[in-house]
Amino acid sequence: MTFNVGARLALAGVVLLVPVVAGCSTAERGIAEPPTSPRSSSSVAQATSASPTGPDSTSIDPCDLITAEDLADVGEFQTTYKEGAGARTCNWQSSFESGGDGFVFSVGVRDSQGIDSVRDIGGGVEPDTVNQRPAAKTYDPRSKDCLIAVEISDTSRVDVTTLADDGCEIAPIIAGLVEPKLPAVP
Predict the structure, then answer these.
(1) Average model confidence (pLDDT) across the chain
(2) Rounded-to-integer distance, Cα 31 and Cα 67, Å
(3) For the segment 126-167, what is each residue's pLDDT rounded down to a tens digit?
(4) What backbone phi and psi angles, to 5 degrees, belong to 65?
(5) CB-based contacts of 154, cutoff 8 Å, min separation 6
(6) Mean of pLDDT values over 95-112
(7) Chain-centre distance of CA 151, in angstroms?
(8) How far apart, in Å, are the Cα atoms of 89 and each of 21, 50, 80, 99?
(9) SS3 breakdown of the chain: % helix, strand, coil, rounded to 5?
(10) SS3 state of residue 52
(11) For the packed helices 5-24 and 167-178, what is the interaxial angle rounded to 10 degrees?
(12) pLDDT at 64 over 80
């Protein structure tokens, strides 16, 4: 699966505009809710409460971290929510019906694993940053899939995973959209 160049550029353009628009907007943003999600609704704003090790990640809904508005210039995406393997995850797949190419990415919240516990998926684990927030990155040199783990606290993180040939070009763009919606790092 590949992310076509036009869609990648559109997504990059959205990322570049988000800080400008967010900096001067007083309107509240809407939250896209996937129709197939069995989860209860939660608010990202609730995630700002602090615990002894940092913000409480348990109230962060991964499906609230990317909205349909965020992806409007790229195309329509179908979302699915699942829990397992230590994470609550929301998967996005571009819709073939709307001219998409089936590109898939996911955002997963890990409540009990910090960025220091990122598992190497083949290309090593490298320290990284997303909007000046500590992160870690790993990639699979064979499939080119990429994972960027963004710190919430010492013991929690958000994983952005792209399943594409150019995954490590796209993952930072998606992580850049997610990071401003996370509670401040302690």
Answers:
(1) 77
(2) 6
(3) 999 999 999 999 999 998 899 999 999 999 999 999 988 888
(4) -80, -15
(5) 53, 54, 114, 116
(6) 84
(7) 12
(8) 27, 22, 8, 25
(9) 30, 30, 40
(10) coil
(11) 20
(12) yes
